[in-house]
Amino acid sequence: MITQYKAHPWHGISAGQDAPEVVTAFIEIVPADTVKYEIDKETGYLKIDRPQKFSNAIPTLYGFIPQTYCDERVAEFARSKSGEVLVARGDGDPLDICVLSERSVTHGNIILPAIPIGGFRMIDHGEADDKIIAVMKGDEFYMQWNDVTDCPASYVNRLKHYFLTYKNLPGEEVACQITDVYGREEAYEVIRRSQQDYRDYMSRSLADDYTGNNKLVKT
User: Are 148 and 203 in contact (CB under 8 A)?
Assistant: First the structure.
Protein backbone atom coordinates (compact mmCIF):
# COMPACT_ATOMS: atom_id res chain seq x y z
CA MET A 1 0.00 0.00 0.00
CA ILE A 2 1.40 3.39 -1.03
CA THR A 3 1.15 6.07 1.64
CA GLN A 4 0.32 9.52 0.28
CA TYR A 5 1.10 12.70 2.15
CA LYS A 6 -0.30 16.21 1.92
CA ALA A 7 1.50 18.24 -0.75
CA HIS A 8 3.70 21.09 0.42
CA PRO A 9 1.76 24.26 -0.61
CA TRP A 10 4.86 25.94 -2.05
CA HIS A 11 6.62 23.02 -3.72
CA GLY A 12 3.96 20.34 -4.22
CA ILE A 13 1.24 22.35 -5.95
CA SER A 14 1.49 23.60 -9.54
CA ALA A 15 1.13 27.29 -10.39
CA GLY A 16 -1.44 26.09 -12.94
CA GLN A 17 -1.21 24.70 -16.46
CA ASP A 18 -2.56 27.99 -17.88
CA ALA A 19 -0.23 30.26 -15.91
CA PRO A 20 0.27 33.19 -16.09
CA GLU A 21 -3.22 33.84 -17.54
CA VAL A 22 -4.87 31.71 -14.85
CA VAL A 23 -2.92 30.75 -11.73
CA THR A 24 -3.39 28.66 -8.64
CA ALA A 25 -3.41 30.81 -5.51
CA PHE A 26 -2.74 29.37 -2.07
CA ILE A 27 -4.67 31.57 0.36
CA GLU A 28 -3.00 32.25 3.72
CA ILE A 29 -5.24 34.97 5.20
CA VAL A 30 -8.73 36.38 4.65
CA PRO A 31 -10.21 39.79 5.57
CA ALA A 32 -11.69 38.48 8.83
CA ASP A 33 -8.31 37.38 10.22
CA THR A 34 -6.94 39.45 13.11
CA VAL A 35 -3.50 37.85 12.89
CA LYS A 36 -1.27 37.47 9.84
CA TYR A 37 -0.72 33.85 8.88
CA GLU A 38 1.98 32.79 6.50
CA ILE A 39 3.35 29.52 5.22
CA ASP A 40 6.16 27.91 7.13
CA LYS A 41 8.60 27.12 4.32
CA GLU A 42 10.06 24.07 6.00
CA THR A 43 6.91 22.20 7.07
CA GLY A 44 4.24 23.62 4.74
CA TYR A 45 1.93 24.41 7.67
CA LEU A 46 0.44 27.83 8.27
CA LYS A 47 2.04 29.70 11.14
CA ILE A 48 1.21 32.95 12.91
CA ASP A 49 3.59 35.63 11.72
CA ARG A 50 2.24 38.48 13.86
CA PRO A 51 -0.98 40.10 15.00
CA GLN A 52 -2.44 42.62 12.56
CA LYS A 53 -1.63 46.20 13.53
CA PHE A 54 -4.61 47.86 15.26
CA SER A 55 -7.58 48.02 12.85
CA ASN A 56 -5.44 47.17 9.81
CA ALA A 57 -7.11 44.29 7.96
CA ILE A 58 -6.33 42.85 4.54
CA PRO A 59 -9.10 43.94 2.13
CA THR A 60 -8.87 40.80 -0.05
CA LEU A 61 -7.96 37.15 0.06
CA TYR A 62 -4.18 37.02 0.27
CA GLY A 63 -1.55 34.37 -0.31
CA PHE A 64 1.00 33.29 -2.89
CA ILE A 65 1.41 31.49 -6.20
CA PRO A 66 3.00 28.05 -5.71
CA GLN A 67 6.32 27.23 -7.34
CA THR A 68 7.31 30.89 -7.62
CA TYR A 69 10.17 32.75 -5.96
CA CYS A 70 11.18 36.41 -5.92
CA ASP A 71 14.88 36.53 -6.65
CA GLU A 72 17.18 38.13 -9.21
CA ARG A 73 14.90 37.96 -12.27
CA VAL A 74 12.03 39.62 -10.42
CA ALA A 75 14.43 42.15 -8.88
CA GLU A 76 15.98 42.91 -12.28
CA PHE A 77 12.55 43.70 -13.71
CA ALA A 78 11.66 45.89 -10.73
CA ARG A 79 15.02 47.64 -11.06
CA SER A 80 14.36 48.44 -14.72
CA LYS A 81 10.93 49.93 -13.87
CA SER A 82 11.61 51.74 -10.60
CA GLY A 83 13.82 54.61 -11.72
CA GLU A 84 16.20 55.76 -8.99
CA VAL A 85 14.68 53.57 -6.28
CA LEU A 86 17.22 51.06 -4.98
CA VAL A 87 16.27 47.43 -5.60
CA ALA A 88 19.03 45.29 -4.18
CA ARG A 89 17.38 41.87 -4.50
CA GLY A 90 14.14 39.93 -4.47
CA ASP A 91 12.58 39.31 -1.07
CA GLY A 92 13.30 35.56 -1.13
CA ASP A 93 9.66 34.52 -0.80
CA PRO A 94 7.00 33.07 -3.12
CA LEU A 95 5.19 35.67 -5.24
CA ASP A 96 2.33 37.28 -3.29
CA ILE A 97 -1.17 37.52 -4.72
CA CYS A 98 -4.35 39.37 -3.70
CA VAL A 99 -7.56 37.75 -4.95
CA LEU A 100 -10.77 39.73 -5.27
CA SER A 101 -14.08 37.94 -4.82
CA GLU A 102 -17.63 39.00 -4.08
CA ARG A 103 -18.14 35.80 -2.08
CA SER A 104 -17.07 35.50 1.53
CA VAL A 105 -14.29 33.00 2.16
CA THR A 106 -14.08 32.32 5.88
CA HIS A 107 -10.61 30.83 6.27
CA GLY A 108 -7.26 30.38 4.59
CA ASN A 109 -5.23 27.22 3.91
CA ILE A 110 -7.09 26.66 0.64
CA ILE A 111 -6.28 26.85 -3.06
CA LEU A 112 -8.33 28.55 -5.75
CA PRO A 113 -8.04 29.53 -9.43
CA ALA A 114 -7.30 33.22 -9.96
CA ILE A 115 -7.04 35.48 -13.02
CA PRO A 116 -4.26 38.12 -12.71
CA ILE A 117 -5.27 41.63 -13.79
CA GLY A 118 -2.30 43.68 -12.56
CA GLY A 119 -0.10 44.29 -9.56
CA PHE A 120 1.86 46.58 -7.27
CA ARG A 121 5.60 46.99 -7.65
CA MET A 122 6.45 47.23 -3.96
CA ILE A 123 9.95 47.76 -2.58
CA ASP A 124 10.42 46.75 1.06
CA HIS A 125 13.78 47.70 2.58
CA GLY A 126 15.36 47.55 -0.87
CA GLU A 127 13.82 44.18 -1.77
CA ALA A 128 11.38 43.55 -4.63
CA ASP A 129 8.11 42.40 -3.04
CA ASP A 130 5.55 42.48 -5.85
CA LYS A 131 1.86 41.97 -5.10
CA ILE A 132 -0.15 40.45 -7.96
CA ILE A 133 -3.79 41.57 -8.10
CA ALA A 134 -6.23 38.95 -9.39
CA VAL A 135 -9.91 38.08 -9.47
CA MET A 136 -11.31 34.71 -8.50
CA LYS A 137 -12.12 32.70 -11.61
CA GLY A 138 -15.87 32.52 -12.16
CA ASP A 139 -16.74 35.33 -9.75
CA GLU A 140 -19.96 36.87 -11.03
CA PHE A 141 -19.01 40.44 -10.15
CA TYR A 142 -15.24 40.77 -10.42
CA MET A 143 -14.83 38.69 -13.58
CA GLN A 144 -15.81 41.79 -15.56
CA TRP A 145 -12.47 43.36 -14.53
CA ASN A 146 -9.86 42.34 -17.10
CA ASP A 147 -7.14 44.80 -16.12
CA VAL A 148 -6.28 46.85 -13.05
CA THR A 149 -7.43 49.93 -14.97
CA ASP A 150 -10.97 48.54 -14.67
CA CYS A 151 -10.78 48.83 -10.86
CA PRO A 152 -12.10 52.01 -9.21
CA ALA A 153 -9.27 54.21 -7.93
CA SER A 154 -10.72 53.99 -4.40
CA TYR A 155 -10.33 50.20 -4.42
CA VAL A 156 -6.73 50.38 -5.61
CA ASN A 157 -5.95 53.05 -3.01
CA ARG A 158 -7.40 50.88 -0.26
CA LEU A 159 -5.08 48.04 -1.20
CA LYS A 160 -2.11 50.41 -1.45
CA HIS A 161 -2.86 51.83 1.99
CA TYR A 162 -2.87 48.37 3.54
CA PHE A 163 0.50 47.38 2.12
CA LEU A 164 2.11 50.70 2.96
CA THR A 165 1.01 50.58 6.60
CA TYR A 166 0.48 46.94 7.63
CA LYS A 167 3.89 46.58 9.29
CA ASN A 168 4.02 49.96 11.02
CA LEU A 169 2.91 51.42 14.30
CA PRO A 170 1.72 55.04 14.32
CA GLY A 171 4.66 57.42 14.13
CA GLU A 172 7.07 54.86 12.70
CA GLU A 173 8.87 55.60 9.45
CA VAL A 174 7.35 53.75 6.51
CA ALA A 175 9.90 51.33 5.05
CA CYS A 176 7.79 50.15 2.10
CA GLN A 177 7.02 52.03 -1.07
CA ILE A 178 4.92 51.24 -4.11
CA THR A 179 6.67 52.60 -7.18
CA ASP A 180 4.10 51.47 -9.75
CA VAL A 181 0.63 50.06 -10.21
CA TYR A 182 0.91 47.94 -13.34
CA GLY A 183 -1.52 46.16 -15.63
CA ARG A 184 -2.17 42.61 -16.71
CA GLU A 185 0.69 42.18 -19.18
CA GLU A 186 3.32 43.29 -16.66
CA ALA A 187 1.73 40.99 -14.09
CA TYR A 188 2.21 38.11 -16.53
CA GLU A 189 5.88 39.05 -16.90
CA VAL A 190 6.43 39.18 -13.13
CA ILE A 191 4.80 35.76 -12.76
CA ARG A 192 6.94 34.25 -15.52
CA ARG A 193 10.10 35.68 -13.97
CA SER A 194 9.14 34.38 -10.52
CA GLN A 195 8.61 30.91 -11.99
CA GLN A 196 12.08 31.00 -13.54
CA ASP A 197 13.53 32.30 -10.26
CA TYR A 198 11.90 29.31 -8.56
CA ARG A 199 13.42 26.86 -11.06
CA ASP A 200 16.84 28.47 -10.55
CA TYR A 201 16.40 28.34 -6.78
CA MET A 202 15.47 24.66 -6.82
CA SER A 203 18.40 23.84 -9.12
CA ARG A 204 20.77 25.49 -6.65
CA SER A 205 19.12 23.64 -3.77
CA LEU A 206 19.55 20.30 -5.53
CA ALA A 207 23.19 21.11 -6.26
CA ASP A 208 23.72 21.99 -2.60
CA ASP A 209 21.99 18.76 -1.60
CA TYR A 210 24.41 16.82 -3.79
CA THR A 211 27.37 18.45 -2.05
CA GLY A 212 25.80 18.17 1.40
CA ASN A 213 25.15 21.89 1.82
CA ASN A 214 21.44 22.02 1.10
CA LYS A 215 19.39 24.76 2.80
CA LEU A 216 16.01 24.58 1.12
CA VAL A 217 14.49 27.40 3.10
CA LYS A 218 15.50 31.00 3.59
CA THR A 219 16.69 31.71 7.14
Answer: no
